[in-house]
Amino acid sequence: MVTDTGFILSKEAFDSSSGVSFVFWLWCENGPLKVQVEHQEVVFFIPENQVTAAKRLLQNQNIHARFADAKLKNFQNQSVICCYFKSLKDYYSAIKVLKSSQLVTFEDDVRPIDRFLMERFIKGSVWVKGEIQIRSGFRLLKNAKLKPNNEFRPFFKHVSIDIECNGEGVLFSIGLVGDGIDKVLMIGRPKPTTHLDYQINWCEDEIDLLTQFENEIQRIDPDVLIGWNVIEFDFSVLHARAEALGISLKLGRNKEIMRVRSGNITRITMPGRVVIDGIDTLKNATYHYDSFSLANVASIELGEEKLISTDNRLEEIIRQFNEDKLSLANYNRQDCILVLRIFEKLKLLDFAVVRSQLTGLELERMGGSVAAFTNLYLPLLHRSGYIAPNLGDHGLSFDSPGGYVMSSQPGLYKNILVLDYKSLYPSIMRTFCIDPLGLVEGLKKPDDAIEGFNQAQFSRTEHHLPELIRELAATRQMAKDKNQPMLSQAIKIIMNSLYGVLGSKGCRFYDPRLSSSITLRGHEIMQTTKQWIEEWGYDVIYGDTDSTFVKLDDDLNSLNCNEIGTKLAEKINKRWQQVLQKDYKIDSFLEIEYETHYSPFFMPTIRGKTMGSKKRYVGKVEKNGASKLVFKGMETVRSDWTELAHEFQTELFEILFAENYSQELIFQAFDRYVKKLYAGEFDAKLIYRKRLGQHLTDYQKNIPPHVKAAKQYLADNPHLAFQRGQIIKYVYTANGAEYYTGQHNYDYGIYVNKQLLPIAEMIVVDLGTKVSSLSDRQIQLF
């Protein structure tokens, strides 16, 4: 018997003669470890009063099951019975049979291998103990036992992968760059490559290419394979070509076969290895870009470009394969390098590891907020004597409201303070004990419960989320203190997702009494905060979800404003402690912070109306001796406006916020931009960028400008193709919207009326000038 510690790379479940077997591949300091857990049973639950009927149905179908009472009940306080199975085949057959006969099952959608880990609180890192066997290239641990190891940190050997192919998926080359390799596998006759600082392996055909790729993976033996859209595209294409050519790709450890499952999402099973996609990981880490294309992200994050930048990249790839294979190899390799550098700069592997260790999700898992919540909450719920509900078990049909947004008071202000509640929704859940179990127990004993909204009652003692939130908040603070940004960010994402999960109808724990008790409490807190601040002699001009905007006197300097902001936060926090103790006999975990001092600050009206807008404003902040404009919801931060609009709006607000401001300066700026526009000086800044939300053929009735431009361009260039999700660049000409190619007869009048004029009007109208004065100036200029 030996004991080791490692990190789970892959997991699979199999039927065996002695029951269900779970197989895990671990990264360990001493090399890869294959772990087998044998003689397992898998389980779901049924109501106790349906046991007799269930036994009869399963016996008729020759499905073997074991029924046992684990002293558990559902959220309707009905006793439930465990249904155990020694084979996955019987397990899934039983679910189908029982449901087809209208019997109720609980937790049958929890994957057995996931249940095995979550019930042991195993999240990524693990201690293992078992009987060791030495195999070629790895170690095998049989009859293993597992327990959590929350402190273990892996250091993966990783390689960046990229393929090149034609439009039908026929392969040209495969690039591999990373630990222990810098190589391109290319189909073609050998060419001199002594001048290159990387290696090219020449392949006879696709079968040879795939065989060499398989050999390289086995030789390098990476733990993690990374890439850009690498699961949905690269490995899906590789798998499809291997199937078409009648071969299997043995890319897993111990030369196990890679398997691909397609559906709403594509899943890659590569025993002993993990495939991690850059786009998915960026989205999980809440990065935002106008486009997640490798070209765009590499340009923003690295300041580097792809080696092929033409609009029709596929056509150029095919040309290079036929005419200039060395250039294609350079391009292929460069894409691998860009992915590698993005992962390293943004520490995406570190983020994936930390996220897995917090939630139990697989390293490569996309999204997964509901699954993460289930992993964390379900084993705690079982230990409290309950099983999880099915969707809709609450029987309620009303919807809970969204976050609180206050009507704004538009105008130009000298001093605005912003006070933000720190993690408002998690703090509400912790303070008012909002929790699925707490709701069930609170409704049973309402006399000693904390009142929520829509007849909700929450137990003061029987709950799990308040403690979970407390632990997460404490761990996040430690992460900040120890300068562990990836851990801090991962915890922030998890905490912020808790309300989203409880408010999602796709979550088994969704109950509108839970979500409304969070959001409506948020409304109450924001309204009360406004009331208190106004009682203390200040005006509140706006509020949004967790932020309150406070107007101070114009004659105050930044030091005065900062002192007031700090004192207001202290008074509000102290008052909440007093009020909640008095009214509910609970401690307050609400914490408002003085966040920002804007000077000046501009809140616009809704276009064409006199009332103030929401979620749109501009302010100037001072930080480290430098001033910066902050735009919220304005054209400057919107990707569907042109660079001309972004630049113009920024300049107008610099003018508006300057000490020597006069309205004539706004007019002069407008005149200057219009003249330069018609002189062609802004031609490079007139490009609109819009994503295709669906395939071009799916647009039939309401066809937006970018789709019209793309369709017209394809009509003239039928050899091209646009994909769903692709960013379309287009401009306005005398012929309407045209796909951007660089040479156009621009309709400058449209840009004045649709880009410059609305931005200028927003400022001058709100400051009391008639719209016609700007329009008239445009007419007078020409």
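Above is the first protein from milestone M3; the second protein from the same milestone is given next.
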Amino acid sequence: MKNLYLPLTAALAAVGASTFAQTTKPNIVLIMTDQQRADLCGREGFPMAITPFADSLAHQNVWFDKAYTVAPASAPARCSMFTGRFPSATHVRTNHNVPDVYYNKDMVTVLKENGYKTALVGKNHSYLKASDMDYWIDYGHWGKGKKNTPEEKELARFLNQQARGQWLEPSPIPLEQQQPTTIVNEALDWIGQQKADEPFFLWVSFAEPHNPYQVCEPYYSMFAPDKIPQPRTTRKDLPKKSDKYQILSQLEDASCPDLQRDLPRLRGNYMGMIRLIDDQVKRMIETLKAEGKYENTIFIILADHGDYCGEYGLIRKGAGTPECLTRIPMVWAGYGIKQQKQPMDAHVSLADIFPTLCTAIGTDIPVGVQGRSLWPMLTGQEYPKKEFASIIVEQGFGGEDFTLNEPLTFAEEGALTPGKIAYCDELNTWTQSGTQRMIRKDDWKLIMDNYGRGELYNLKNDPSEINNLFGNKKYADKQMELIEALITWNLRLQDPLPIPRNRYHFKQNPYNYHFTD
């Protein structure tokens, strides 16, 4: 991280904001899941009760069905959420580039300047460190950071040695010891210790429903293979996608030879994990309601990115920017939120979280932030529709695409560890190489890569993106419209940092809008 030039007026304003107790500012509880796709919920028409509480909260508050990650990988997404900057600006384009993060001022710094106590309970996978927060209990996909009890040690042993990638039977880890349960326990404990006259920010970050796919009863039986809907696509559709999808399928099959046989059960586990989280979020929020803390708290429920969950016969993530990986759930509830029963008609991003919270607590959006404030629309005020007419997603670390013709093997690269069932790294040299950008606008989606190859889909008619209309003369006007929007977004996201140090005045809309009509 680098300390960058700030105009004197902004620096003085920040100092002034921190000199008095911010007793009227709302608390903030940011609830994040890891690898949860957006469409597996009742509010979007999924026929099973997978997120009943989040659905009810959404209909009583505000929710988005066109919310997107900045990139379908954990570290790039989380670093962007806390900085309000896209991966091309943070320099965190992969899970291996967290130390390269680049920004001016982030969410935690701004909240602390405004009198907030800050805490993480759950998974980090960002540039943040324990010393950055007032309270820190970290969890991972294979157990808690500090394992103090026999139960915590046994859970870590099970996840590491037996369920490294997946567990096809009901999990032997009981509900009270599952990580979503203990995360909520510890989150509520910390909230209970906070002073009434000091606002707090709590990041409740679940490591699930990311693999290892394991879930206990009753959630295991709740989503049995014979009960859940079938995916819209299979491996037969892979030839309609790019080579990277087929490379990923070969890696998954090398790691788990029986994947296609096991896929229905893995999908059921994934859904059960989401329902388990939903029940624990319900317990947390209803507890805060009973304690009188709901009305003065902003609640945000979202994910860092999605999961194939059987789409194209794949699991996890890795190749491309399909909707199942890039579109995320997003619900805002509580303090200041005006009810909108239908989904908000706006294209929004994970990068919009930080600037929105700046507006909500009455402070300026720092220079270098690229996201926009959603606060006007969340509170029922007017906002420019053109500003939210489209949204972009980034993917890839650059260079040339790697293919299977390379001399490099999965094992040599580290993407495959022999002898461990379903232990592979889907975010690897092959799937992450090159550069790709996607843009969503209304029912349409355009994807372009650094070779000039394009994909164009009508998501209403083709939600799984298997009928590529790019180059079809019938849709030439729509293709050009989306190319124009994509170029506009790419120019908009050219990093302004560092801003000029002499004479020039930097202009920034208070909500970070570019379009104001």
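Note on the second protein: Residues 10-16+25-389 form a domain with the Alkaline Phosphatase, subunit A fold (CATH 3.40.720.10).
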